[in-house]
Give the backbone structure.
Amino acid sequence: MADTETYARTDQDILAAMGKPGRAYLAGLLGTASLAVIGGLLWAYQIRNGLGVAGYTHPVNWAVYITNFVFWVGIAHSGTLISAVLYLFHARYRTSFNRAAEAMTVFALMVAGLFPLIHLGRSWVFYYLIPYPNQRLLWVNFRSPLIWDVFAVSTYFTVSAVFFYVGMIPDFAVARRLKEGVRKRIYSLLSLGWKGTEREWRHYNKLYLFLAAFATPLVASVHSVVSWDFAMSIVPGWHTTIFAPYFVAGAILSGTAMVITLVVPMRKALNLYSYITDDHFESIAKILLFTSLIVTYSYVVEFGLAWYSGNFVEMESFRYRAFGDYRYLTWTMFFCNSLVPLALFARRLRRNTAVLLAVSLLVNVGMWLERFVIIVTSLAHDFDPYVWGSTTVYTPTYVEVGISLGSFGLFFMLYLIFLKTLPVLSITEIKEHL
Amino acid sequence: MTGEPLIFDDKEEFLENLRRLVREGVPRDSIRTITPFAVPEVNEILPRIRSKVRFFALIGAASGTATGFALTILTSLSWPLIVGGKPIVSIPPFIIIAFALTILFGSLSAFLGFLLLARLPSIRSIRSEGEYGNAFVILVEEGRR
């Protein structure tokens, strides 16, 4: 049975992560911040010179930026799955990952939200997407999937941010107790004066349950809405009914991979071996494996539907995807998302964090490629056979590549800042289970 | 006014004492507890009215649904423009907006409800610590023991 001493040690262990940063941390922060700044400068360059600096060639006018948008929104999903859905299912291993996963959700959505603006070209008119009565009394077109996106993603961001914050309120009270100076004052404010009375806990538990219940349908709905950006059009390769579940499964696969990518080094760097165990990693590896199988099934169904339809346009679109100009990317995607995760059927490999990290990194690559392949190959081979030749193949320019790398820089920079400023594990929940 | 706090290091000891106080006939509504984490047994020993956060969640969610449909339908009717051959009031796409606002308003309203019911933020507690650390504490209102 745990006593106050054990609890105090838990407080110390977890808050130790928020101590003075070491050299490796600062180097990481500098590296990621530099990438983010380079991305920002390239965006400024694009605003100055126009979208011509991106590699768009007719008819490929959605490409890397939209790929990044879909990728980052997808990354966010597994955060909600881990924090909300596993909470409702009372999965104990959730406490090892939920804070990191929630932070990941919020940061991934912040990064994702930038890409529609970058892709707009004239980013400063983004507010046209917001419903407000303009001078000509025109309102937005609520039948457009792009408007659904605005509502789905902004709701998702707000709810995830509230969920993230609410989960930390009792932990801020712990941080306040153990920190000094300005930090103490900031944590006092953030804790809202939390004392831990039975009244606070009673309402808090109810609120947490409701937030989990509200966030759970978002796991399915947000990426479905994102998939409809494509599926509602009539482009062969996009116009299919399986897109919503296919995208949701892909989102959870990529998000789980990203959680593993973040938590494996975090556990090592912050020495959290007693709180995040190999058993916990094994459980999350099973989610990765399971969603990988669903994604593989979706690939088979996608190609199967094209073949079974007997529609030559549809069949040609998928032949192009597998054997056309982008074939290497397509086969890399199959390799990373369908083949590599099969290694996790072996229990020994599931419990080996180095293997797990390698698999998750490859899945991240594979899932980024999946979005690219879906978006670009479908457009490159649509209704204009004149441009089907390989001379007009779309390739990203250095501006697009730089902005994409910048988004990774921004995401990891935010995550590194999170590690030093907020409790990286849910202290009160861990104590509850001691 | 509250009397001297009873402070325990161990959860079981704390719960035992809480049960004892109730057995001794101390009115339940005069007992307050402070714990380092949620202890579900406290709710069993000191049954209180169920949290009203659920009403806030329900009212918020319902108003979100209503706002979603009102916003989409009324704005479409205010400038009836046929787009893509679809009806002016196209319910299926409007459901998506209403759904998003249901979740948004429900969550925000539940959060506000929590702040109101738990009486947070508490300026007094933000300013002065008055912490019991990781101890389990029972406070009994003076004169009712």
Remarks:
- Chain B touches chain A through 66 residues (CB under 8 Å).
- The helical segments of chain B are 11-23, 40-45, 53-78, 91-117, 123-127.
- Residues 71 and 98 of chain B are 9 Å apart (CA to CA).
- Chain B has a mean pLDDT of 89.
